[in-house]
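FIELD: query
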Amino acid sequence: MKFYFANPQPERFVDEVRAIAARGEFDKVETRPVLATFLGRVIAANPARAETWFAQLADLAGPAREALHAAAWFSELAEARAWLEREHADARFLGPAPDVLSGPITHPSLLDVAWAYYFATGDVRAVRRVVSALGFMTDVGAAARFKDTAQTDEDRARALNDGIFQAASWSLATLAQEHPPLLAIYERFVDDNEVDPTERIALAITLQKLAPERWSVHIDPKAGTARIDRKR
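FIELD: result
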C-alpha cells in the first residue's frame, strides 16, 4: 500500500485483497477503515475494472466482505453503488460516504486513514489533514501529566490531543525519510500563510529534524514567539 500512487498496479487488486483477507487484516476493527479507504481510492481510480473486481471477489465473507462493501462505498462510484444495492449491503453503505479529508482529527486512527488516502492517490490534501493535527502542539506533555491531574474530561481530551500530535509528528518525519518528495510538500505548507501558525512551527520543527542543515526554529518561551529560519 505504501506510496502506491507512485507505481500503481491495479491489475494486482484482486490478488492483494485476497492476501489481506488471508492474513486476517480485515478482522482487525482498527485497520478496517484504513484498508477500506485505500481500496476505495483504488476502485475510484479504476471504474472500468470495478464490476469485474466485485465479481471476482464475490466469495469473500464476514469482515472481509464488509470491508469490501466499505471500500466500494468510499469509492463513490455509480458502479459501486449499484453493486452495493444488488448486494443488499448494510444501509450505512447506501448513503453518502463521509469525506475523510475534512473535519477535525479526533483520534490517532484518523491519521492512518489520511495516510492511506495519500498512499493511494498522492493527493496532498491528505497530507494537509495530517499536518492539521500539529495544532495540538499546545497540549504537548499532557499525556505524561495526566496521571497527576484531576483526570477531568478536559484533562483526558488534552492527553488525547497530545497523543494525536505525537503520532502525527512521528508519521510526518518517518514517511518523509522513506519518500523524500514529501519534504517539498511540507515546505509549501510552511510557506503558506493560511496554515495555522502553530501547525507551521511544528512542521518546521519536523523539517529541522530531517534537514538541520537547512532549517532551524528558534523559540522564545518567555515571549511566546517563534522564528523559522531556512537556508535557500
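FIELD: remark
The mean pLDDT is 95.
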